[in-house]
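Why this split exists: single-chain examples teach little about how molecules sit against one another. For that reason, every record in the complexes split bundles all components of an assembly together and asks for one structure covering all of them. Below is a record exactly as it appears in the raw files.
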Amino acid sequence: MKNGETAVSKATVSRMPAYLRYLKGEAGKGVEYVSSAAIAKDLGLSAVGVRKDLALVSSRPGKPRFGFEIRLLIEDIEKFLGYHRWTNAVIIGAGGLGRAILAYEGFENYGIHVIAAFDASPAKVGAVGGKPVYPMEQLPDIARRNGIRVAILTVPRAAAQEACDEIVAVGIKAILNFAPVHLHVPEGVTVRYEDLAVSLAALCGESAGDQI
Amino acid sequence: MKNGETAVSKATVSRMPAYLRYLKGEAGKGVEYVSSAAIAKDLGLSAVGVRKDLALVSSRPGKPRFGFEIRLLIEDIEKFLGYHRWTNAVIIGAGGLGRAILAYEGFENYGIHVIAAFDASPAKVGAVGGKPVYPMEQLPDIARRNGIRVAILTVPRAAAQEACDEIVAVGIKAILNFAPVHLHVPEGVTVRYEDLAVSLAALCGESAGDQI
DNA sequence: GCATAATCGATAAATTTTTATCGATTATTA
DNA sequence: TAATAATCGATAAAAATTTATCGATTATGC
């Protein structure tokens, strides 16, 4: 807690997406209220922890005997996470993964427009799922005109650093990197690593722990 | 620290993949030694923290004046994370994302064989990147014969819980879920959520924090 | 209308994780 | 060969996070 602007811990923030996913699921089933104990049980957390987390982001307190109103809670968490602010994003690398992400519609629910993909290979240029794939040369122009703030990097490992440099040169400050490579970026640029293999390996490790 | 078997904190474990990625990158450039200070600088951590993490997994101490020997460190971390144990995995849902993952070769580096995909739609059956796509009905048979321990779930949101139930019924104990849905699973089954939209949204939030 | 049971929110304790400090070790270099 | 600078590992302090406890609130059922 440095100056009052961020009184919410990182650990709490990291649990918010799980709450949101859970609450939306319950809302979809027609449930209107949910207790901290119920959330904790389904998500494998402690009820006290859940209450603490929710107290930090919810605008209205929970009702004794009922719990929290799901609809309000979803609104509050979305507002807290900033899903109400729209962001434009692009994909760099139109291989299998890049094209799959380009076709994925789920981002719109989170305030993110993925507007196009770019690829160094002319063979990949065209369109996927109604969205355009441009040659890499057009990145600076299109990115600047559309105020792109985020890039999703889905190029092969060997091309990652070079592509990263191009992204940075355009002024993009946030990169979601799917290439299993450590990227060197200047100060002020945020990289988030999304290594599918690591996720899977971690999962194996977790579930294997019991068996040894 | 309950009984001496797990004296390594979760936080430390969660940083290991980043170390590994970084070290492999440096090794690829021909570097042989690296200091805790250098790692910390590039990864945005504290040198003391890096030393503490590495002390817990490395078999040999670092050399004063040189740092750690990268080759040994990579071996130690891989051993620690269990990448030496082989695991068979399958993909459930052969849409765009499922096919992209099926074609991805990177898993082999982490001790994971993705042997096949399954899909409820007959139209999807066939092969991708040399790997077979089977109809969903064959999951129990093939999974049991190959000792499948992990499933990667890439079906649409609406089909996720049903597919999850089928996976669980087969006896698979670990699921990497790409559908943006909370899954209800029995005790003993581990689910890891890999919500691309959330990752991206979180990234936007991080980089947006400065600008408000 | 009143006792009851379920739930919340706040405060306090315990645990975990991070950061700081300092002596010990080892290659470099004069 | 001896002084120096860089780095480590261990111990201690600080900060963050999780867990426990308890009185307050509110719908339910008699």
